[in-house]
UniProtKB/TrEMBL annotation:
Belongs to the TonB family. Residues 68-86 have a biased composition (Pro residues). One of its GO terms (molecular function) is energy transducer activity. Residues 129-219 form the TonB C-terminal domain. This is Protein TonB. Residues 65-88 are annotated as: Disordered.
């Protein structure tokens, strides 16, 4: 014997449900698109049954009136000229004074050129000569040569000494001889070691020359 058949309905699966739903939606969309297409096509194909045209009556042109001529411009009043001053008559007065005689002015000599005034030179300070006879110098006297004493040699020697600004003898030269070489040499040797008061120009000590006399005499 065959087994009895189960006639109870099997519920559809989820896939089947989605397929049915998609099919229904697709049919609805297709029907909607077909209805829209037909309505638009009918509107485009349908033409108006008749076109009425109405002609407007033409407006009659107004007759243009001829333009009126413009009145001529009014003439301007003549410009007033200013009154011209009448020249006053000049009365000539006869002069009773005698006419002066003509004279000529002799040409004047040219002015002498202006000589520039030279500036007055600055006063030059007085030069005070150097000294060798001050007591505070303590300069030693020349040594009388013994040979000159025995021979009785005497005389006066003049020496030209160049004195520095510090008071020392820079150079000693024979200005006048005594006549004896030994006396001249003794005088020059002594003066070379002397101290001097330097010459001064104003407040400044300067170099200068001085003549020193040396006398050799036997007692």
């Amino acid at each position: 014997m065959l087994p009895p058949l189960d006639c109870s309905e099997v519920p559809p699966s989820t896939f089947e449900r989605l397929a049915h739903l998609s099919l229904v939606v697709g049919l609805h969309l297709l029907l909607g698109y077909a209805a829209l297409y037909l309505s638009v096509k009918n509107e485009l194909i349908q033409l108006p049954s008749s076109i009425s045209v109405r002609l407007l009556p033409m407006i009659e042109e107004k007759k243009l009136e001829p333009a009126k001529p413009l009145p001529p411009p009014k003439p301007l009043p003549p410009a007033r000229r200013p009154p011209v001053a009448q020249p006053q008559p000049v009365l000539a007065v006869a002069s009773t004074a005698p006419a002066s005689s003509s004279f000529a002015v002799p040409p004047q000599p040219p002015a002498p050129p202006v000589q520039p005034i030279a500036a007055a030179p600055a006063p030059v300070a007085t030069l005070v000569a150097a000294r060798f006879d001050a007591d505070y110098l303590h300069n030693p006297k020349p040594v009388y040569p013994a040979m000159s004493r025995r021979n009785g040699e005497e005389g006066k020697v003049l020496l030209k000494v160049r004195v520095s600004a510090q008071g020392t003898a820079l150079d000693v030269a024979l200005a006048k001889s005594s006549g004896f070489a030994r006396l001249d040499g003794a005088a020059a040797e002594a003066v070379t070691r002397w101290r001097f008061v330097p010459a001064r120009r104003g407040e400044e000590a300067v170099e200068s020359s001085v003549v020193v006399p040396i006398t050799f005499a036997l007692d």
